[in-house]
Amino acid sequence: MAIVGVGYSQVGRHTGLSERHHAAQAAVAALADAGLSREDIDGATTWGGDATDFAWMLGMGPLRWHLNVGVSPAFITPAIHGAMAVAAGHCDTCIAFRIMMQQPSSAVIAAGGAALSSPSMIDAAMMHPYGDFSPTQWAGLLMNRYLHDSDATEEDFATFAVVQREHATRNENALQRSPLSAEEYLAAPYISKPVRLLDCDLPCDSGSAVIFTTEERARDLRARPVFVEASALSSIRDMNFELLDDMTRTSPAHCADLLWSRTDLGPADVDCAQLYDGFSVITFQWLEALGLCEPGGAGPFVAAGHTRLTGSLPLNTDGGAINVGRRHGANFCIEATRQLRGQCGDRQVQGAQVAVWANAVGPFSGAMLLTAG
Questions:
Q1: Taking the mean position of all CA atoms in its chain, how far away is CA 195?
Q2: Nearest one of 105, 294, 112 to 202, comparing CA atoms
Q3: 235 pairs with which residues across the strands?
Q4: Rounded to 10 degrees, what is the CA torsion of 98, 102, 104, 108?
């Protein structure tokens, strides 16, 4: 399977556009990127929304395969399902969507809805009256425990934020592009201590689309193909983030084991990594889970400069969702693809041939390994 087209809609805060506007703009951009027409699409999938509605609106179809994904580890899920549908022969060319609307946050609604409708809803009933209803609360638990159990410090998270902002200043599509200092990060207010405002992704309106097709067809299309080398989805328990048995080694560890078991490549082969930063501690967990640094060593790894564009492992080279806006992981897939095509301008990782991108943390997660064509 291969990625042959990627595209964004207009992205911003309070754009005034509907979900359909964002889906249409992203799909048109992805089709143009691939050199395909709407008639070429015979599969569609999305996280949230209605893939068949988007496809019909755009004049695609008839579809041979479609799937709407609900609560799951963000864009990685429709991406993997789309790639698998192509691999299984259910369709030849599949478009995967993720549409995000700033208000209300569909991710927060989905998480809250899952908690209240699940068999364990009694847990939510015991937490919500005390103000524990936001993902920032469990993120605070994860980060606090991580700081306790690892070699990381809050200053290391400051370095992480500064480096990601440096990358964002080179990305004209990033929403946050002003230079950031460690002092400014440390002066930012706590949201759920030790999680600061600048540890959280930025709510926005966005549409993202990625097109998958067969390796054979990909080689005849406009853009340099990027191949799906391996992928993995993991779930280690129900959706109670607060009740994880181990808050520093969560589902990314299991997911990474699955990913590396499905390829002859390994962590040393990765040229750049695009790892989910809905909260910055998630990225630290992924660095360690994937074996890209030593267990407990993500903080010193970042502090030593390894994640800069000139470092040994350029990380979140588009600036991450903290700076480009909450695109629910689709930005990491698109940035990895563009890096492997050599399309990232002055933030390009020279000679990039292998990239990994990942989503989510805690009870569920997913990852995909990509190689240049």
A1: 19
A2: 105
A3: 364
A4: 60
Which residue reads 């068949």 in tokens?
52
Report residue 8 as tokens: 């964004």
| pLDDT value of residue 309 | 98
Cis bond upstream, residue 62 (ω within 30): yes
Mean pLDDT by 10 residues, the chain (373 residues): 98 94 98 97 96 97 95 96 98 98 58 48 64 83 96 97 98 97 98 97 97 96 94 93 90 98 98 98 98 98 98 98 97 98 98 98 97 94
Q: Which residues have CB under 8 Å from 130's CB, separation 6+?
A: none
CA distance 268 to 80: 23
Nearest one of 58, 358, 30 to 213, comparing CA atoms: 30
Give the length of the chain.
373
The DSSP code for 225 is: P
8 Å CB contact between 209 and 32: no
Which domains does the chain show, CATH number per domain?
1-103+203-223 (3.40.47.10), 134-200+231-373 (3.40.47.10)
The reported pLDDT for the residue numbered 242 is: 83
C-alpha angle with apex 28: 25 to 33, nearest 5 degrees? 125
Work out whether strand 65-69 and strand 43-47 pair parallel, antiparallel, or are unpaired: parallel
pLDDT of residue 241: 87
